[in-house]
Specification:
CATH architecture: Roll
Shape: elongated
Number of domains: 1
Largest sheet: 6 strands, antiparallel
Number of helices: 4
Distance between the termini: 13 Å
Strand content: 25-35%
Order of helices and strands: EEHHHHEEEE
CATH superfamily: Hotdog Thioesterase
Structural class: alpha+beta
CATH topology: Thiol Ester Dehydrase, Chain A
CATH class: Alpha Beta
Helix content: 10-25%
């Protein structure tokens, strides 16, 4: 288990996750079709040639999945009881096949759970950047966390 217990989080901590990921066309096509999203934005290169982007966009749900998933090992792996929600999900720039993302996580708040005294709630801000250090995704995640045994 590599995740942190509730008591190990403090507001203002920033984790620069060492895992980076180059997003491939296969990643995008598999994810998009597996989740039954028929949008030409992600699947039709000919259609996308005539748009402002000129090529398919990476599915934003895949971007969100990578953004949170990359953070897990350093923050919540094995110590999360449940994710309580994602808020303020934004994608200020598109991702394309071949882009490489890196992720940072900031601890925004830490509080006791009112309904579950054996747990605490941590709110994390995840931010994803492409290889040019442009912000491509961000969200807030609320997690119900285990306390130290």
């Amino acid at each position: 288990m590599s995740g942190l217990y509730f008591e190990e989080f403090s507001v203002g901590q920033i984790y620069k996750h060492p895992i980076r990921r180059t997003i491939t066309e296969a990643d995008n096509v598999f994810f998009t079709t597996m989740t039954h999203n028929p949008a030409a934005l992600h699947l039709d290169a000919e259609y996308m040639k005539n748009t402002e982007f000129g090529k398919p966009l990476v599915n934003s749900c895949l971007t969100l999945g990578f953004m949170v998933g990359i953070s897990v090992n350093d923050t919540t792996h094995g110590t999360t009881v449940a994710n309580l929600g994602w808020d303020e999900v934004r994608f200020p720039r598109p991702l394309f096949h071949g882009d490489t993302i890196r992720v940072e996580t900031e601890v925004l708040s830490v509080r006791d759970s009112r309904s579950r005294p054996e747990n605490g709630i941590v709110v994390l801000a995840h931010r994803a950047y492409n290889q040019r250090d442009e912000l491509v995704g961000e969200c807030k995640r609320s997690a119900l966390m285990l306390r130290k045994p």
